[in-house]
Write a structure and sequence with these properties.
Elements (H helix, E strand, L loop, with lengths): L1 H18 L10 E6 L6 E6 L1 E3 L3 E5 L7 H9 L1 E6 L2 E12 H6 L5 H7 L4 E7 L2
Antiparallel strand pairs: 1-2, 1-5, 3-4, 4-7, 5-6, 6-7
């Protein structure tokens, strides 16, 4: 777990600033817009997201305790930029990657089931 935390910190400091402007416009590079639960500041975090039948699934390679996951859970809503489109989302819930794959569109189902990531965040598209 220590390696995963160091990798997450490296990505946050060095990779995310480069990827952030492209996130949401390239395949597999999406972005989640959220509000800090203590600061009230707006943040954009690059993520790997996949369309589902009623929203999106976001992989959680660094676990469920990241700030952006906790911010979405506290607010209950946010925005995901995927495929060049902004989707208002709600009801964040952490599930197993297999459960996320079950509601993911093809061809992503097979990919999700083969990745070494244990959990995902499911978000429902707001009406």
């Amino acid at each position: 777990m220590r390696f995963a935390r160091r990798r997450a910190e490296f990505n946050r400091r060095f990779v995310n600033p480069v990827v952030r402007p492209l996130a949401g416009h390239l395949p597999l590079w999406s972005a989640v817009d959220h509000v800090g639960r203590r600061s009230g500041r707006r943040y954009r975090t690059p993520v790997t997201a996949f369309p589902t039948t009623d929203g999106v699934a976001i992989l959680l390679p660094y676990g469920v305790d990241t700030d952006w996951v906790r911010n979405l859970q506290a607010a209950g809503t946010g925005t995901v930029v995927i495929g060049g489109r902004s989707l208002q989302v709600r009801d964040p819930r952490v599930v197993s990657t297999d459960e996320a794959a079950a509601v993911t569109r093809r061809p992503w189902q097979r990919l999700l089931r083969t990745l070494p990531v244990k959990s995902a965040l499911l978000l429902t598209r707001s009406s």
